């Protein structure tokens, strides 16, 4: 009887939750273009063009009215030119007659055509580096299509005869639209290839790109003797980099000239190691058009090393193309339409699995199952076994479907789906154990749901590298690649030459040149050196050698040995505090125009670099902390985006009743909970970590303790997750179990570049801070990342300062940030600390607005003697309260005792304290040192302006 009553109660709870979810998600249902059904016939007439004149900037809207000749399905093409100075495409929301026919129209992208001058620049060591493309100054024409590349053809719009209205709202970038054209879908001719008789051959070096659809598609260089060109002395750009030619819809175009009219085969020397035993498919276009059906979805099979291939027909014969004498273009466009059904099925499976996971967690009453309780799973979910096995069947069906495209009938590239099916079947064998096996089902790093999500990520990678393309006839001889022995000999020669090569090595600069060490990878160093050689040195006459920093920890030793550089860049933001106390850094306030330069940055970021009245470094980059949220999840739940921590607390019951939660960054910090997680709420409460001197920590003051309690109660009272194991917030944000939370730049980069299924479904907002007595929301966060400084032993301080002024300027930081992303890809975000320069970076405009506003609240902890122990003990106090249940005051008192003991030990080590007496006060770094200088400079500047008038 008790069991029956319990079952009825649970069922009623589930019914209520279903009703609530259904009510919250009762908005209009939108279909994707891939699954939408149509009733009208496909239009087969001539193209109909309607001239329009729209000039739209960010957030602008405009309408285009056009006439439709007859009922039918049409492609809609736009003639346009992007106007924003950014490497990003223009993004628009498009409606037709006030409605959105399918979801993809909520974010339509219009790409520019990217070209370069065709010459690879060389660095000062003779190594070639990738070209920097620029947008062609032309009017482009494109059909509105899926920006994610899941469908290869433009959308089909169901239109009735008469007038219709398109409304465009620019979400990012800017665009001029000149015409709207209605077209019938292109009919691709049947294949009628003939024998490619003759000995003609055209060799295209694939790295020499004529145009590309994305600015980041580029050539790259490897020391591989089988690639062309090759040198044992210098790095040559010698292949199209598959890491950049990777996404569905990417297009690369080359120019070539045919001397003799005839039929030709097309082959390539390529490498495709993205997906085991599964091809990357491309559409082949000659002079902008696909010549035959066989030229669609030509496969480049899996190969871990470069190998030759010739394009085949569906029957396995060499495909031929008819080319007339003269100039032509060859384009390859990555086509992922074959796997679109798999995308759609995984999306559906993830939604169904997560829905069941939420229902089970509602039944459990939390995220953890009671080991001593029976949940009567089959009574509450009578079809549970059928559901689990059904999902496994659907996974296996997709793997079987995909095998037809593998040359060896293999599904190894989709092994995550196979493993997911096996796991679901194991769970189906013991359905009553499912609550205790949720980590295997949906919540763990190796759960069935995570495997499906990982499959989505793997499927998005195509990675097609090409060395050479051959357009040739049957009797032609292809270029011979070096054999095994020749390649081995060149490799050995290169090996021995590497011992004498000193490119960008520290300590190898020329005498009389400014020596700069940079703590970044070679791509960054090459790019900076090129900027210096082409801009800074011609302007100032100062010669600069930039080198890869061997180890930031060796700077003190290098300074003692007299081998330190003049300038350091990209130094981890806490390191200057270790260097300035040892006299290794130059006081930047000695330069008269320091205040003018300092106002480029958020003043709070200078705190770790202050010692006494001196400032010994400047911020170079930032690590911003903002709130991420899933727009689709919050919309379905009817939850507004919270503005403060009080509003966060109000939405937690609504999230938690659906087994969701809010993510606070301490949950993702393994081991020590560092300042970005533990300090913000203390600062927002008005607290601090030191008094006027570092000998007096104020963590145990009432006001700091109030902030600490605000932090710990998020977990002890409001039940936020204390630990989110790898892969962390990013993955659970994708799953929807943590649809909102606070995270940093690394999460932002991942969501932009490694979560294609969430494109357009997430956004960011300001840190939801604490509200003060005046009703203002305080949003203080940390933000330090990398810094720049001048070493104290430099013999060229004025030249070093001139360099730092140039490097930190708005113009150079803006140029460098755009250059990185246009050359190496969107994942190379340069989060410059210069606020004006950040506003020009190629990031989404709405996101930049949020980040720049959050930058105004950035402040850093005073890193002084013993701060490392303060950070550690603040973390220990946090863990004591949230995990062990210790009262906050008691935990903090214990922490303060340990902090003070270590602080006095360090003060004694550096001569500030001895024999129980303070010999000299070590003043806590105060941002007023910087703000006073800036205020004095601004008053002086204002007075000069008045005098001039």
Mind explaining what this structure looks like?
The strands form eleven sheets. Strands 1, 3, 8, 9 and 11 form a five-stranded antiparallel β-sheet that branches. Helix 2 (340-364) runs antiparallel to helix 4 (384-403), helix 2 packs antiparallel against helix 7 (448-459) and helix 5 (415-429) runs antiparallel to helix 7 (448-459). With 949 residues, this protein is α+β, with helices and mostly antiparallel strands. The termini are far apart. It is built from 26 helices and 38 strands.
Instruction: Profile the largest sheet.
Output: 5 strands, antiparallel
| Rounded average pLDDT | 90
- Helix coverage percent: 25-40%
Tell me how many strands there are: 38
**What is the rounded Rg?**
31 Å
- Total helical segments: 26
Global structural class: alpha+beta
Terminal Cα separation, in Å? 93 Å
Question: What ranges have pLDDT less than 50 throughout 5 or more consecutive residues?
Answer: 1-31
How much beta, percentage-wise? Answer: 15-25%
Q: Rough shape?
A: globular
What are the defining features of this structure?
five-stranded antiparallel sheet; 949 residues; 34% helix; disordered N terminus; alpha+beta
Helix and strand arrangement:
Elements: H1 2-24, E1 48-56, E2 61-68, E3 72-82, E4 90-96, E5 108-110, E6 114-115, E7 134-135, E8 140-143, E9 157-159, E10 162-172, E11 175-183, E12 201-205, E13 211-212, E14 219-220, E15 239-240, E16 251-258, E17 262-272, E18 280-286, E19 298-300, E20 303-310, E21 320-323, E22 326-334, H2 340-364, H3 377-380, H4 384-403, H5 415-429, H6 438-443, H7 448-459, E23 465-472, H8 484-497, E24 514-518, H9 522-540, E25 544-548, H10 555-561, E26 567-572, H11 575-580, H12 594-598, E27 610-611, E28 614-615, E29 618-619, E30 626-630, H13 631-637, H14 645-656, E31 662-663, H15 675-678, H16 680-684, H17 702-716, H18 728-735, E32 740-743, H19 745-754, E33 762-765, E34 770-771, E35 777-778, E36 786-790, H20 797-808, H21 810-824, H22 835-838, H23 845-855, H24 867-882, H25 888-909, E37 913-914, E38 917-918, H26 928-948
Parallel strand pairs: 24-25, 24-26, 31-32
Antiparallel strand pairs: 1-11, 2-10, 3-8, 3-9, 3-11, 4-5, 4-10, 6-7, 12-23, 13-16, 14-15, 16-22, 17-20, 17-21, 17-23, 18-19, 18-22, 26-36, 27-28, 29-36, 30-32, 30-33, 34-35, 37-38
């Amino acid at each position: 009887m008790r069991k029956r009553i319990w079952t009825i109660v649970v069922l009623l709870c589930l019914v209520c939750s279903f009703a609530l979810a259904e009510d919250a998600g009762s908005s209009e249902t939108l279909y994707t273009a891939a699954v939408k059904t149509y009733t009208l016939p496909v239009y087969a007439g001539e193209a109909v063009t309607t001239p329009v004149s729209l000039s739209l900037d960010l957030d602008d809207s405009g309408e285009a009215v056009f006439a439709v000749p007859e009922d039918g399905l049409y492609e809609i093409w736009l003639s346009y030119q992007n106007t924003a100075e950014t490497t990003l495409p223009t993004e628009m929301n498009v409606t037709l007659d006030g409605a959105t026919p399918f979801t993809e129209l909520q974010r339509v992208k219009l790409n520019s055509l990217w070209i370069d001058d065709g010459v690879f620049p060389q660095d000062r060591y003779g190594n070639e580096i990738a070209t920097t493309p620029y947008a062609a100054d032309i009017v482009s024409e494109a059909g509105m299509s899926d920006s994610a590349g899941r469908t290869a053809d433009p959308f089909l719009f169901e239109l009735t005869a008469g007038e219709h209205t398109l409304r465009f709202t620019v979400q990012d970038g800017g665009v001029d639209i000149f015409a709207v054209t209605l077209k019938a879908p292109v009919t691709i001719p049947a294949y009628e290839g003939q024998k490619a008789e003759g000995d003609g051959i055209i060799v295209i070096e694939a790295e020499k790109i004529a145009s590309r659809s994305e600015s980041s598609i580029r050539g790259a260089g490897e020391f591989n003797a089988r690639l062309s060109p090759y040198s044992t002395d210098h790095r040559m750009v010698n292949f199209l980099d598959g890491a950049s030619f990777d996404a569905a819809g990417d297009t690369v175009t080359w120019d070539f000239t045919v001397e003799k009219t005839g039929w030709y085969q097309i082959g390539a020397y390529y490498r495709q190691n993205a997906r085991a035993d599964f091809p990357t498919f491309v559409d082949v276009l000659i002079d902008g058009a696909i010549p035959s059906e066989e030229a669609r979805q030509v496969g480049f099979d899996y190969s871990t090393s470069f190998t030759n291939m010739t394009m085949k027909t569906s029957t396995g014969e060499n495909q031929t193309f008819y080319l007339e004498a003269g100039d032509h273009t060859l384009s390859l466009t990555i086509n992922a339409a074959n796997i679109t059904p798999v995308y759609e099925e995984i999306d559906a499976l993830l939604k169904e699995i997560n829905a069941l996971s939420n229902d089970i967690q509602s039944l459990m009453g939390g995220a953890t199952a009671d080991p001593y309780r029976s949940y009567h799973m089959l009574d509450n979910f009578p079809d549970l076994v059928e559901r689990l096995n059904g999902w496994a069947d659907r996974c296996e069906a997709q793997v079987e479907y995909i095998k037809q495209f593998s040359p060896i009938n293999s599904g190894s590239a989709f092994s995550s789906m196979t493993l997911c099916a096996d796991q679901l079947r194991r769970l189906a064998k013991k359905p009553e154990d499912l609550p205790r096996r949720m980590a295997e089902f949906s919540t763990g790093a190796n759960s069935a749901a995570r495997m499906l999500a990982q499959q989505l990520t793997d499927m998005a990678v195509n990675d097609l590298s090409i060395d050479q393309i051959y357009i040739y006839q049957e009797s032609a001889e292809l270029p011979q690649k070096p054999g095994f022995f020749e390649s081995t000999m060149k490799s050995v020669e290169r090996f021995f030459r590497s011992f004498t090569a000193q490119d960008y090595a520290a300590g190898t600069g020329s005498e009389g040149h400014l020596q700069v060490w940079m703590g970044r990878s070679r791509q960054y160093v090459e790019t900076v050196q090129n900027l210096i050689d082409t801009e800074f040195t011609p302007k100032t006459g100062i010669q600069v050698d930039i080198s890869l920093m061997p180890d930031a920890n060796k700077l003190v030793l290098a300074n003692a040995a007299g081998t330190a550089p003049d300038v350091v860049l990209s130094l981890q933001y806490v390191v200057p505090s270790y260097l300035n106390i040892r006299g290794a850094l130059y006081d930047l306030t000695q330069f008269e125009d320091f205040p003018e330069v300092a106002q480029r940055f958020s003043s709070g970021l200078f705190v770790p670099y202050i010692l006494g009245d001196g400032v010994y470094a400047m911020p170079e980059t930032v690590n911003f902390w903002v709130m991420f949220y899933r727009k689709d999840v919050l919309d379905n739940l009817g939850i507004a985006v919270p503005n403060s921590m009080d509003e966060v607390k109000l939405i937690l019951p609504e999230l938690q009743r659906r087994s969701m939660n809010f993510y606070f960054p301490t949950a993702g910090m393994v081991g020590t909970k560092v300042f970005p997680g533990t300090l913000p709420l203390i600062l927002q409460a008005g607290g601090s970590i030191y008094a006027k001197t570092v000998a007096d920590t104020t963590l145990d003051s009432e006001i700091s303790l109030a902030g600490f309690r605000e932090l710990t109660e998020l977990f002890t009272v409001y039940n936020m997750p204390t630990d989110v194991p790898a892969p962390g917030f990013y993955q659970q944000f994708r799953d929807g179990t943590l649809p909102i939370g606070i995270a940093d730049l690394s999460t932002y980069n991942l969501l932009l570049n490694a979560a294609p299924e969430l494109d357009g479904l997430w956004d960011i907002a300001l840190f939801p801070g604490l509200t003060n007595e005046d009703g203002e929301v305080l949003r203080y966060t940390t933000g330090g990342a990398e810094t720049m400084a001048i070493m104290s032993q430099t013999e060229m301080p004025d030249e070093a300062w001139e360099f730092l002024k140039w490097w930190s300027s708005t113009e150079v930081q803006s140029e460098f940030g755009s250059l990185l992303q246009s050359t190496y890809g969107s994942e190379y975000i340069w989060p410059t600390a210069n606020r004006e320069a950040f506003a020009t970076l190629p990031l989404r405009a709405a996101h930049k607005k949020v980040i720049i506003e959050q930058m105004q609240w950035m402040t850093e902890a005073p890193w002084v003697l013993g701060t490392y122990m303060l950070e550690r003990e603040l973390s220990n106090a946090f863990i004591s309260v949230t995990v062990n249940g210790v009262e906050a005051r008691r935990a903090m008192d214990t922490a303060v005792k340990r902090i003070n003991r270590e602080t006095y030990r360090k003060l004694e080590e550096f001569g500030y304290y001895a024999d129980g007496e303070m010999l000299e006060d070590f003043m806590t770094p105060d941002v007023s040192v910087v703000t006073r200088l800036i205020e004095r400079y601004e008053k002086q500047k204002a007075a000069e302006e008045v005098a001039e008038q």
